[in-house]
């Protein structure tokens, strides 16, 4: 992998690996593997196709006590309420058992959805390049090698305009500093990643590092560089300050959404069972955490 996150053939390299997991998090990952096997892959239920860990832990940049454990489970069937209940229970148990992690989050998807044409450059890319295999056959084997193209930019982050109203509603409902801090973190991380993928095809590479993402963005949009650096700082150290949310939701966010649509086009909404048109898809909700 070169300095732009590419392999020798110019495709985006998978960013994580189990041998990069920091020593402090090795017991967490081992426990997660065992619990997933017991809950989803043992006995007659055999719901699991494959499991993955993503985020700072497999990238090797996790900080004990601050970093999250992020898991993706690809199931043979559409996730059910029972599946979600089991996943929530497992996440709570992992949270309680391991002080090294801040929180645990488990994303459930259908394996067939990952491989679908509609998700080829969104959820498929996420699994193939941003997720590290933990259990089962790797879905990446049935997916293409990805390049930093305008198509990839549109399909991963071209729905910002659809997301802004939901964030504004959450900001209006936020009653506590904790609510506003969580929203600040998720919105800031999403805006930095959207800013990066806006310029990704011109830069010709991939990174998940938020500070580097802001730096790359600023090279192409120097007039907005300071605001994006501020956003990256808030993504790493979120604050309940209402002024930050106003910057994100009334200033940088609307500009970025309009510029993204002008440059790459707008991604179609991803409706699904129990999910109204326009609500962020599963990948976007996951990426807001990492």
Give a brief description.
This protein has 290 residues and is of the alpha+beta class. The chain is built from twelve helices and four strands. The protein has helices spanning 26-41, 56-59, 81-97, 111-114, 123-130, 150-157, 160-173, 177-203, 210-220, 225-236, 242-264, 282-287; strands at residues 48-54, 69-75, 104-110, 131-135.
Structure description:
With 290 residues, this protein is α+β, with helices and mostly antiparallel strands. The protein has a 4-stranded mixed sheet with strand order 3-2-1-4. Strand 2, helix 3 and strand 3 form a beta-alpha-beta unit. The longest helix is centred in the middle third of the chain and has 27 residues. About 3% of the residues have low confidence. GO terms for molecular function: nucleotidyltransferase activity.
Class per helix and strand makeup: alpha+beta
Strand order of the largest sheet: 3-2-1-4
Largest sheet: 4 strands, mixed
Radius of gyration: 18 Å
Please, what is the oligomeric state? Answer: single chain
Report the mean per-residue pLDDT as an integer: 92
């Amino acid at each position: 992998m070169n300095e732009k996150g590419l392999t020798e053939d110019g495709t985006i390299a998978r960013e994580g690996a189990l041998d990069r997991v920091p020593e402090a998090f090795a017991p967490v990952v081992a426990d997660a593997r065992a619990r997933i096997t017991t809950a989803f892959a043992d006995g007659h239920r055999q719901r699991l196709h494959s499991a993955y860990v993503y985020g700072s832990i497999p990238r090797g940049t996790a900080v004990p006590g601050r970093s999250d454990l992020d898991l993706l489970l690809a199931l043979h069937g559409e996730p059910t309420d029972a599946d979600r209940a089991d996943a929530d229970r497992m996440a709570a148990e992992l949270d309680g058992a391991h002080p090294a992690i801040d929180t645990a989050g488990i994303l459930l998807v259908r394996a067939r959805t990952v491989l679908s044409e509609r998700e080829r450059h969104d959820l498929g890319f996420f699994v193939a390049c941003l997720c590290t295999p933990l259990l089962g056959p790797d879905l990446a084997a049935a997916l293409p090698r990805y390049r930093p193209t305008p198509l990839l930019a549109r399909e991963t982050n071209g729905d910002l305009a659809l997301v802004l109203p939901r964030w504004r509603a959450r900001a209006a409902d936020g009653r506590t500093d904790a609510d506003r801090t969580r929203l600040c973190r998720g919105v800031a991380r999403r805006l930095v990643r959207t800013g990066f993928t806006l310029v990704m095809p011109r830069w010709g590479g991939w990174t998940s590092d938020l500070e580097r993402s802001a730096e790359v963005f600023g090279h192409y949009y120097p007039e907005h560089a300071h605001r994006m650096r501020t956003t990256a700082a808030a993504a790493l150290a979120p604050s309940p300050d209402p002024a930050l949310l106003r910057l994100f939701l009334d200033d940088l966010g609307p500009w970025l959404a309009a510029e993204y649509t002008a440059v790459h086009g707008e991604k179609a909404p991803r409706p699904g069972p129990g999910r109204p048109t326009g609500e962020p898809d599963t990948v976007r909700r996951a990426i807001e955490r990492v």
